[in-house]
Structures are given as structure tokens and as C-alpha cells.
Amino acid sequence: MTFLKKLSATSTFKAPIFVPSIIFILLVTIYCSLYPTQAQTALNVAKQVIFDHFSWLYVLAASVFILFLVLLCAGQLGNIRLGGDNEEPEYPFLSWVAMLFAAGMGIGLMYFGVAEPMLHYAKPLHDNLTEVERIQESMLTSFYHWGVHAWAIYGVIGLTLAYFGFRYKLPLTIRSGFYPILKNRIAGFWGHVIDIVALCSTIFGVATTLGYGALQLDAGLNSLGWVSERSFSTLSVLIVVVMCIAAISAISGVGKGVRRLSEINLFLALALMIFVIVVGPTLLLFSGFTENLGHYLSNLIDISFRTFAHEPEHHSWFNGWTVVYWAWWVSWAPFVGLFIAKISRGRTIREFILGVLFIPTLFNAIWMTTFGNSAIWLDQESGGVLTALSSNTEALLFGFFDLLPLSSLSSTIAIVIIALFFITSADSGIFVINSIASQGNENAPKWQSVFWAVLLMVLAISLLRSDGISALQTMTLLIALPFVVIMLILCFGLWQGLMVDNQYFGKKFTQGSANWTGKHWKERLDKIITQPKRADIKTFFFETAKPAFDELVLEFEKHGLTANVELTNTGKTPSIEFIVSKENVRNFLYGIRCQPRELSNLVVEDDSLPNIEDNKIYEPITYFLDGREGYDVQYMMKEELIADVLKQYERYMNLAMDHSHALMTNDLGESM
After folding, report:
1. Average pLDDT in the 372-379 region?
2. DSSP track, 325-351
3. Any signal peptide, and if so, which residues (predicted)?
């Protein structure tokens, strides 16, 4: 038995996705472990190439994602449900909102809640700012990096997975979003390439987060005196311990326990935030939140497209902050996107977008205000204690707690929160990575979870050894770049899918079948299953339409009206018209033309439809003098066609008798 056959027999891995991804990741891991200096140099070169040539793409793409989601939300497509039309939301609204809050929380907010506002305050982007302007700029930048852009990135992936997964019944994988573009080819080479990029992006995104978690956990333990100065060995031990716990959690089937742990952790985080609000500058935080939010909203368009194209002195700041953030969000998009997709079944697209874009963003804004504004205020009150710590980012959170009452208790709670987020993020990351590598199959054997835990652990440690957190960021940048392109194409695929959806579910019964009864059902069935040819339409003209129109002419003339029938049986478009002539208003015209229509190749190639011979059919389509859209009348019998003409004539007369429609009904033929 070959290796690939053994792999298929003992796992849920899809070899075309799993094998190339593992080869790439192992090569990176081995290279960084054996040649850390050379790896650091190579990664720095790669990072600079991305910064120099592609930083604009990250910024433009993030803004495009916001505009795309807002467009969907505001239009008719927002009414489409993520599931069947009658499907109810899987979770009650408040539970769904709570889970979105939880999705917005994580190691990143714990790490950067104090650090980012303080770093922007201590080292402002622009020179010669007043104290107030420094505070405003630091909070604006923090809101920008943790605001609606991040959730637009997550939202695009989440909406794509939810829509094609629950509406089209496709697997919850990234390739499913390419179905409108690639059709059945998503099961082939290009589908594998898409999932490989998604898998590698997620792995490096999770590994980067593990690196941040290890650094901050180490700083917390150091602040309490439990460990000495930071070392590579300490960070490695922390990562190993956390990943072992995550692996045990993943294989022990304690999913409900992990969810309960996440809920407890969210409660602790909220309690910690409330503690800071109460013991910190409470009124300042309330007024600061209002001002921060207003400043963010008023500057949103400007900062959304800001690349400092004419300010090269700011390129280093821009690349090191905004571009790295956007790449980090992109790398986490399959992870968070899958989570929010799974909890959003039954929601409308409008509900999904409003919830995903604004609920976590609001929570992040409150968190950043609470910790950021409090940190700046404490720094001012203490004479710059936190500014002095700005070179040691990981220690800022614990330096912040040292300036508050009950510092030991709050620091201990923070360490517990970080550790629990560390564990639950790793556990969830293993689940998502398993799902991508298995092409949506969630019934993976337990050893696969152990495998991914070990791989993430080794990858995070090897990259930390190479160049610390910078190496993790660089790999995230590299892998996120092709995934940004994939996400932009996903927007196009999602739009195509939604447009087809809107047309398909909005399709009404044909006008000709509106008044069907059981009478003539055999003749109608014969017409339905037989491909209509051009000759069939001519037969319809002579055997159904002309006799019907001739009877109408006789009856109209009995009432003193001038009516006639005109038949054009030559040329590319044969037609027949029933015309009632008028003097002051436009003539009444009910016409039927022979109109060709292309058939779907799926129908032509279906052997179960023996009466379909080629990819073109011909239909008798109505047309009117006012240019209204016509409809197919091929299934109408003579009496039904007469009734349809009379319905159109009744409409015509009602409009003609109403002076408010005179502009449309007036006949300008003689006067022009």
C-alpha cells in the first residue's frame, strides 16, 4: 500500500491539500531551526519586498471588503437567508450576539489593549503634536487597527462559507466560494491550490498568535516573580505546555467543556474591564469613548485608504503597523470566518453583516478605550512610568496593573485569561486546520489533532528561535499575500452566486401556465419535455395565434373598432401581431415573435433528457408597443391566448383613460 493510500485509509486528510502544505511548512520549520541566521536574513528580505511593492494591496483590499459588505447589506440581496428560505436562526439573537462578542475577544486584545495606545502615544506618528492631539491620534490609530476593517476581512470569509455551505450545500471550505467561477472544477487542481493557501495562512496565523501569547504569558509570570528574565527556553516551555493542554482538550471530546471554559474566560475578561472602569478614571473613560468613536467615524474614509504614498518618512511605521495587522487579520480569516459562519445559519445576509461588522467592533472600541485611555491617564499621573516601558511591549499590561489597586490580583487574573485564551485559541485552531485539511470533514481521528498540535508547537518555536515575533509576522505576511487575492476573487464569486440566487428564487411561474387546469395536461407535458424548434413556433403561429387573433378582429369590428392581424413569416425573427388602431392615443399592439434562447450545457449533456438535441430552443415571446418586457405563451391554447390579449387590452384602456399617463399613451406619430 502506497503512502497516499495509507493516508486516505487512516485519516480524513485530503492528500492533494495535506501533502503540499506539510512539505512547505516542514521545509520552513527545518530551515529556520537549522539555519536561524540565514533564515532571519531571508525573511527580512522577503518582508521588505512585500512592504515595498504590495503594502497598498492590503489597504485597498480591506477597504474594498467593507464597501462590498455594505453594498450587500443595503440592497435587495441582503434579504437572502443563509440556509433555506424558511429556515430559522440556529441560535437565539442574544446568544448569537454573545458569541460574536466572544469572537472579538482573544489574546490579541489582551496583548495590545494597553500596548498599542501607549506605543502610539509614546512615539506618535507625527511630530509637533499637542498633548491632546497625541492622545487623539493614538486612540484613532488603535480603533482603526482593531475596528471595522478587521471584521470586514473576517466577514467576507464567514459570509462566503455560510452562504455556499448552507444555501448551496457545499462543504465549509474556501474553495466552495469559487463554485460560481470554477463550477465542478473546484474539486480539481485549482480547488486544491485555494485550500493549500488557506491552510498555510491559517497555520502561520495561529502560530503568530501563539507567539504573542507566549511572550505576554512570560511577561506576566515575570511581573509576579514566578520566572526570571525572558529566555527562549522559557518561551518554548510555555508553548509546549499550552499545546499539550490544547491537544488533550482536542482529543478528549470535551468540546462542551472547552465552550464552557471560553464562556468563563469571556466573563473574566469583562469583569477585568469593568474593574478598570471602576477603579480608573471612570468619567474620563465614558467621555473618552464618545470622543474616540466620533473621531474614528469622522476620519474613517481618510485613514481607510491611507498609504503615505507621498510621505516616505512614514513608510516604516505604516508597514510595521497597518500592513502587518491587515496580514494578520487575513491569516486569521479562515479561522474566525468558519466560526462565525457556523453560528450564523438561518440569519439573513443583512443580519449577518450588521452583526459581524459592528458588534465585535463596538466591543473592541470599548476595550481599547478602557485600557488605552486609562493607561495614558496613568502614565501622565505617574510621570511617564508606562512610557518608559514602551520598549518592552509584553510588559506594558502588567506595568499598567501595577499602577492600579489590587495589582497582584488583577495581574493574576490577566495571566489566567491569557492562558485560557491561549489554550482555547490553540484548540479551536487545531479544529479549523483539521477541517481545511480534510476538505470540511469534521469527523477526524484523534491522532490528527495531536499531529497539528505538535506541528504548531514546533513551527512557533522554530520561528521564535529564528527572529522572535518578527519571523512569525513575516511568514504571516508572505502567506497572507496570495490569500488577499483569493479573497478579492471570493467577493466576485459570492456576488455571482447571490445574483443567480436572486434570479432563481425570484423566478415566477410563466404567464402561459398561470391559469392551467387539469384539462389538456397531456399536450402540455409533451411541449414541456420536447425541445421547441423554429418550425414549432411557426406551427404555433398558424394553428393557435392566427386563429385566436382572427376571432378577435371579427369581434372588435362588431363593436366598431378597427383591428387587423399582421404576420411576418420571413427573416430571422418571424412574428405575428394583433393591432387595434386609434386616432389620438397610441395603437394597441399585442405581438408574438419567435425568439431563440441558449440552453445550459448541463441540460444538453444530461442523458436522461433524450428530447434535448442541441443548446438552442425557440420560444414565442410577446412584445408590446410601449416596450414592456414580454413573456412566453407557448403553452397557451387558443381561448387562453384570447383571454390574455383581452387582459392586456383592458390594461391599455385603463391607462389611456387616465390623464396622468398621457405622456406615455399620447400618439406623437402625426405631429413629429
Report:
1. 96
2. HHHHHHHHHHHHHHHHHHTTTT-BHHH
3. none
Other C-beta atoms closer than 10 Å to the C-beta of 501 total 16
Q: Where are the alpha helices (DSSP H) in 75-178?
A: 93-104, 107-122, 131-145, 148-166
Here the cell at position 406 is 489590587
Q: Do you know the residue count of the chain?
A: 672
Per-residue model confidence as pLDDT tens digits over 348-369: 999 999 999 998 899 899 999 9
- The number of helix segments (H) and strand segments (E) in the chain equals 26, 4
- Grid cell, residue 192, equals 486544491
CA proximity to 339, closest of 431, 270, 249: 431
Say if CB 432 and CB 202 are below 8 A apart. Answer: yes
Helix (H) or strand (E) holding 454: helix 446-505
Q: Which residues pair with 597 in a beta bridge?
A: 617
Banded model confidence at residue 671, pLDDT cuts 50, 70, 90: very low
Query: What's the average model confidence in pLDDT over 436-464?
Result: 82
Under a CB-based contact definition with an 8 Å cutoff, are residues 371 and 116 in contact?
A: no
Tell me whether residue 91 is exposed, middle or buried, using C-beta atoms within 10 angstroms of its C-beta: 0 to 12, 13 to 18, 19 or more. middle
Mention every residue, 6+ apart, whose C-beta is less than 8 A from residue 349.
72, 73, 77, 78, 79, 80, 81, 82, 159, 163, 498
pLDDT confidence of residue 670: 47
Percent of the chain at pLDDT > 90 equals 42
Asked if 500 and 180 touch (Cβ cutoff 8 Å), the reply is yes
Q: How far apart are CA 44 and CA 51, in angstroms?
A: 10
Region 610-623 average pLDDT: 80
Every domain of the chain with CATH number 1.20.1740 lies at: 16-502
Question: Comparing 117-126, 189-198, 243-252, 582-591, which segment has the lowest mean pLDDT?
Answer: 243-252
Class of the domain covering 16-502: mainly alpha
Q: Report the C-alpha gap between 112 and 364 in whole angstroms.
A: 11
Q: Which residues pair with 593 in a beta bridge?
A: 575, 621
Q: Which amino acid is at 349?
A: I
H helix intervals, 224-281: 232-251, 255-279
Are 401 and 410 in contact by the 8 Å Cβ rule? The answer is: yes
Residue 74: pLDDT above 80?
yes
Exposure class string for 551-561: b at 16+ Cβ within 10 A, else e: ebbeebeeeee
CA dist list (Å): 326 to 65, 101, 153, 212, 413: 12, 20, 9, 16, 30
Tens digit of each residue's pLDDT (9 = 90 or more) over 201-227: 888 888 877 877 788 788 878 877 777
Q: Long-range pairs for 247-254 at CB < 8 Å and ≥24 separation?
A: 247/430, 247/449, 247/450, 247/453, 247/454, 249/423, 249/427, 250/427, 250/430, 250/431, 250/446, 250/449, 250/450, 250/453, 251/446, 251/447, 251/449, 251/450
